[in-house]
Every structure is written in structure tokens, then in C-alpha cells.
Amino acid sequence: QQHIAVAIDGPAASGKSTVAKKLAKLLGLNMVNTGAMYRAVVWGALQKNVSPNDPAAVVAMLSDFDFECKINQGSSEVWVDGQLLESELRSDAVNANVSAIAAIVEVRELLVAKQRGLLQYGSVIMEGRDIGSVVFPDTPYKLYIDASEEVRAARRAADGEVDAVGKRDAQDSKRKVSPLIVADGATVIDSSEMTLEEVIEAAVAALTAQG
Ligand code: C5P
To answer: Furthest-apart CA pair in the chain: how many Å?
Structure first.
């Protein structure tokens, strides 16, 4: 039997990670957070004194970058230089530099290949920016979770993070390669005025209709 992919895209702090986690549990699918992979490349670069704003230096770093992404107990994990990365990925420095690194074609090619490869371990819910448009364009299951900029900024502040979500979204939407867009066939859910339960209900209804 072939494994299926559910694509969830949307801007920063739209609630897509929370929704993806809940849906993955509910539907019994592996959950993959692709933002963590881009964040891991930034963490590795900063660790090696490579500027995320210097594409040539970043690409040179990739040639012997010790990076692994695996599924453990239903969720994706990222490892760099043999170290499992968790809270490191949410530092202010990573937040500030991730959009720059995510705009580098070679970084995207490397990570998209790894993302597609994770399907061999089972069906997935994958969340990010280009999952429905680039990583799995042929899947019928696509959601785009949105929220107003005010709501998103408030959610991020409630997490205690310094994160210019508006700036990150502008960079992610305007870049040439794989910009954040609503993929063909995706159902848009604006979560600004909805509870988590309502978003999950709408998501399940949309996926049922798409299948
Ligand atoms: O999802 P999260 O906010 O952690 O993603 C961090 C950053 O990684 C995004 O702002 C974006 O620049 C990049 N990203 C991407 N494509 C994805 C997932 C994340 O470009 N599929």
C-alpha cells in the first residue's frame, strides 16, 4: 500500500504546528516539522561561524554537513553533528536568520529530498511553507492555515519568543524559490477567530472532502 502525505502550509505562528500535531495523533500519521530542518541548517552555520547571509559560504558548508532527519515515535527529529536539536532551534539568532538561509536554492534542494524520503517510513502530515506546492504537489490532501498578523504576533509573544513574524513572512512570500503560497487545491482555514477544536474540525472536514 502506498503511503500518503498531508500537506499543511501557512505563515509563521498561524497555529499550523499545533494543528498538524493534533491531526497526526488523530489520524495516526507521522508528523514532520520542516521549519525545524531549515532552523537546523542555521544553527549549524552559526555554530561554524558561517554567515547565513553568505550563500556561497552556506553552500560550501553543505558539502560535508552532518545532518540527519528521522522519525522517532511518530515525530520528526533533526540531528546536526550527532546532536539532537530541540530548544536550540527556537533561539532569537535562529529566528532572525532562518528566512535568509531558506532562500538558498541548494539548501532547499537538500531538505526537500530529505522531506520526500521520509515518506518511506509511513504516511505523513508535513508542515511548512512549500509542502503542497513543491514537496508533494500531487497529494490531494492540502491545507493552508492562516491567521491575521495581529493574532500571529500575539501568539508568538505568548510563547516568549523574540520573532519578527511579519518580516519573516514578507521574506518567505517574496523569495524567488518556493515562496509561501496557497498551493493549487489547498483548502484555506483562517484560524484567527477559531478555537483549536474548531480548526481541527474544519481540517478533518476539508481532508475528508479532498480524499
Ligand atoms: O515553520 P517555522 O516558522 O519554524 O519555519 C522557519 C522558517 O523556515 C520559515 O520562516 C521559512 O523561512 C523556512 N521554511 C521554509 N520552507 C518550509 C518550512 C520552513 O522556507 N517548508
So the answer is: 48
The residue assigned the cell 536550540 is: 88
- Whose C-alpha lies nearest to ligand 1, atom 16? 129
Using CA atoms, how far apart are residues 23 and 203, in angstroms rounded to an integer?
Answer: 8
Cα dihedral 76, 21, 38, 177 in deg (nearest 10)? 120
Which pLDDT score, from 0 to 100, does residue 109 have?
98
209 CA → ligand 1 middle, Å: 27
Q: Is the CB of 128 under 6 A from ligand 1?
A: yes
ipTM of the complex: 0.99
Q: Tell me if 12 is assigned to a ligand binding site.
A: yes
pTM score, whole prediction: 0.96
Cell of 89: 532551534
pLDDT in tens, 29-55: 999 999 999 999 999 999 999 999 999
